[in-house]
Amino acid sequence: MLAKVSSLPQQIRLRAVGNVVGGFLGFAGIVFIALRLTQPSLRLQLTISGSDVAMRAAPAVLGVLGAGLMMALAWRCILAHLQTQVSRKSAFSIYGLSQISKYVPGNVFQFLGRQALGAAKGIPDAALAKSCLWELGTVFTAGAVFVPLILPLCTIRIAPVIAAAIFATLLVGCFCVIRRLLGQAIASAFLWHEAALATLGSVFAACTVFLLPPAIHCDAVMLVTLIAAYVAAWMAGLVTPGAPAGLGVRETVLLLLLQKLLPESRLLPAILVTRLVNVAGDCLFYLIPAVATLKRWPQDRRQATSLGSPGAE
Q1: Domain range list for the chain
Q2: What is the rounded CA–CA span in Å between residue 6 and residue 245?
Q3: I need a labelling partner for 233 at 20 to 30 A (CA). Which of 41, 226, 307, 309 fits?
Q4: Mind listing the pLDDT tens digit for each residue in 70-120?
Q5: pTM (two decimals)
């Protein structure tokens, strides 16, 4: 016991160092992107109106909202594996209200918020804590499946058809192994995370190809590459402590991966627009349960008052 207590200060120091390093990497990424944007050759000339931008961006924002709902369903499946049943409505509410905290530096506050909100709903603390670890494991596994699709962007030259075949094999193989060893609930969580990551990558691909004028010609190979590159960048932002929602890290990784595929005059605006779309989608995912909670608050207050009154007994 004394050894565990004495090791706590060292763990706190290591966590603090990790947050500082991660925060520095995120800040350096922001500065790097900002310096790129100041180049004269990268001046943005948007000729579309604000209403046109909103109409173009609305499906992308809904896509980010859909990805958040898929993440919530994956979390619900994980809780089911831990012998804790939660309704879809409660899972969407807890996840939506807590995930906005990922924009606070540290990359842990969304889990802390989920712990508090879940406990308020009567979910056991142990199940909530374990669900965070299971969630990270299934997310990392789902993200790793996309690795073969970004190999054509790296020094390892591989035909796109072979990369797609490896991806499909890994997807089916991981699902079968997880279902056999860990059960159907975790396998379902893996598939929901896979679908969520693919949706987020598709949002980035849509922003890159269609959202910004003029739309560019893009074949299936390029679309898949854009999706996989975004998933890799999203994972890099997730594992970097101190970078809120991967800010700076995600954008830098995207720029490094895709700089040979697209000109910076196209890539940088797409990266920035995707970040704005993600923030809008996350805010929408937060506002929906927040507004519903505010609407229920007067009723809950009246019920609490009636239960606490002497005549209630």
Answers
A1: 2-39+50-293
A2: 32
A3: 41
A4: 999 999 999 999 998 988 988 898 898 888 877 776 567 778 888 888 888
A5: 0.79
